[in-house]
Specification:
Two copies of one chain form a homodimer. By secondary structure, chain A is α/β, with parallel strands linked by helices. The first copy, chain A, contains twelve helices and 16 strands. The first copy, chain A, is about 30% helix and about 20% strand. In chain A, α12 links the parallel β15 and β16. Chains A and B meet through α5, β13, β14 and α10 of A and α5, β13, β14 and α10 of B.
């Protein structure tokens, strides 16, 4: 099968290659992903040598790999479209496969079921499915991918594969954040009169937090976005009000008649906003976060006086730990597909960069790297089909 | 009325007194309690001069003060018994009243209603009531105290005032921690099969977390206590299993067949146990805490991989911020009184130190100071009546 991936630099045969493997971290240590949640971890300078493909942590390669075979719980999926996410870039920068092996990124896919393991219930060959999948297996940047059936649902019928590919990872993150972590009640009257502040509301996850909260709760939604285009997008996704996270939050909220917020979804740059968010939170309020804040900028004790709570959401937790409730992810994706087909949710796909290949994925990762460095982002970037 | 309190050192007329008021923090800054949640804050060395009563932050004085008059929402209560809590010592060390004023400590009281404000509904003169009360008003170390009726309930009929005085603050803390912060469901089948680990289960709050969780949920309760007497007390309070927090937690839990816990109530020395608790928590688990951990010992990012949440409980939040739901505290105390009178909860009173006066309160505070410094503690210390 065709695929797009990257290798341990020591696997590369290049005349200018002069790495001393003694100086490299143990690739097994890197592979086990324990660095993923560690913002302190950066690629060591040993990797940042010439040639070009070692200098550039966004560099990816078109490769040919053997077709995989499904295990008992697996679906084998022929991938039709994929989206990219900040996690791709984080893993690319922080994780190295063992020498000789390839690491495939990509955790947002739509494709057709091509074969099933004997325990993979509820699906048939030819079903068009969508999923984000687990972090600790080969990603979806490949013609064929294996994924545990409990993480999968049928894709919405009303969307193209490209449109649908924008949704799984961000919908799962947004749903889990709202309903599993913050445990918000559902229903149009649920939490009516309370305010959810969505920091970075125009981004990929923000788009879905706003859509889901608008459709399934009675919350008043205030999003932050710094650019006019992002502000318009956040409103389109369901924000009742939009403010600019580059200006003081309290002043802008006060101008809207809002003195405190009961809920915060802090989706980006939590460390920069933390003190202001704690100041704005109502007593007994809750803040959910998904990013990698600098711990030194987070004064945990500042949460005590108001009895606040802090909730991490990582979309990969259920699959990484094979939790007893991991099939909840299939259930969420099924419910999201229904809401899409009822025209209650729409795709956050904003750019289709062309077919799935190394050049297009590298271009997509460069945009993500800019976002991680602080550039504002709107919706999702998708790749579709194979050359 | 008689009372027990302390003053700003500058108010004291003593020949050896040589404080330079220029060196003192602004007493108003201290009075507003914002330092309460700040473990970095310590009394500055300027206070720690001779004479004896300036050296000793546990030093308290018998005084005579004017009788207070109830505001519209107040009950005026004639105090019959009080308990002491670590918060008394923390406030004594961290907060100074303005020069000339007295600060009265004490947030656990049983007494008789002597007068009512016009909005103080549901009570009558002569009612025996119990409450913890708010941090930002005069405490209960006085013959007469004002307290907002929404924080109060009738005391259980089956307990003496001394026995009952041990319960309000710890019951409120434990109830809020379990049912408002962790949002555990109630019912004998609720959360059955899940494990709650209660660190410092033999202490004041631990005693009530164990009793309430045993009576109102189906959780398996594992308490930690380091001394045999505390271990027996934790079992008496409802722990199914008891382990020693001075030995490795994982090994002891594994010996009980427990590989992970879904819930943690970390009631003391959270900073010392944090890494071990995160290691033990099941994915999607939750940790509640009430103490003042050293932030440098808390790696917040370690919570991300498992999508864990962290919940502060401060019993004073509702009253400090006059939240819309502050009457929930009266409701909790009413429910606890019912459970006591149904013989489903018992008093955690373990010592009655005699009548309420400066000598006995100072002795009680010394015991609390030892607990804050790491000595193990069992149940509560109570004072009853007036000389």
């Amino acid at each position: 099968m065709r695929a797009v991936g990257y290798q341990h630099p020591a696997s590369l045969d290049h005349p200018q290659h002069s790495l001393d493997s003694q100086e490299l971290p143990d690739p097994q240590d890197l592979l086990n992903s324990q660095h993923l949640a560690d913002p302190e971890y950066q690629l060591s300078p040993e990797y940042l040598v010439d040639p070009k493909y070692l200098v550039d942590p966004e560099y990816l390669v078109d490769i040919e790999l053997p077709d995989p075979s499904p295990g008992a719980d697996d679906l084998l999926v022929r991938v039709e479209a994929v989206a990219v996410n900040p996690v791709d870039v984080k893993v690319r920068r922080r994780e190295l496969p063992p020498p000789g092996a390839w690491r495939l990124l990509g955790w947002d896919a739509v494709g057709r079921v091509e074969a099933l393991g004997q325990r993979a219930g509820g699906f048939a060959v030819g079903d068009r499915v969508w999923y984000a999948g687990p972090l600790n297996r080969a990603g979806c940047n490949a013609e064929l991918q294996l994924v545990d059936w409990r993480l999968v649902a049928r894709a919405p019928q009303s969307l193209t594969s490209a449109e649908a590919a924008a949704l799984p990872l961000t919908s799962l993150t947004a749903w889990e954040l709202l309903f599993d972590r913050l445990r918000l009640p559902q229903g149009s009257d649920a939490a009516a009169g309370q305010v959810l502040l969505v920091v970075a509301g125009a981004g990929g996850v923000g788009s879905m937090v706003l859509q889901l909260a608008r459709q399934l709760t009675g919350l008043t939604l205030v999003a932050t976005a710094s650019q006019p285009e992002g502000q318009a997008w956040a409103r389109h996704c369901g924000a009742h009000q939009v403010i600019d996270h580059k200006l003081p939050l309290r002043t802008q909220l006060a101008a809207l008649g809002i003195e405190a917020v009961q809920w915060v979804a802090s989706l980006s740059h939590t460390d920069q906003h933390f003190d202001a968010l704690v100041d704005l939170l109502a007593p007994q309020g809750a803040l959910a976060l998904i990013d990698d804040p600098n711990p030194a900028a987070i004064n945990l004790l500042s949460l005590k006086r108001k009895s606040l709570s802090l909730h991490w959401e990582l979309m990969f937790t259920r699959s990484l730990f094979q939790t007893a409730d991991m099939a909840a992810q299939g259930g969420i994706l099924q419910r999201v597909a229904e809401l899409v087909d009822e025209n209650r949710l729409f795709s956050s796909c904003r750019q289709i960069l062309g077919p799935i290949n190394a050049a297009n994925l590298t271009a997509a990762h460069r945009q993500l790297a800019g976002q991680l460095a602080g550039q504002s982002s709107i919706g999702k970037i998708v790749l579709e089909g194979w050359d």
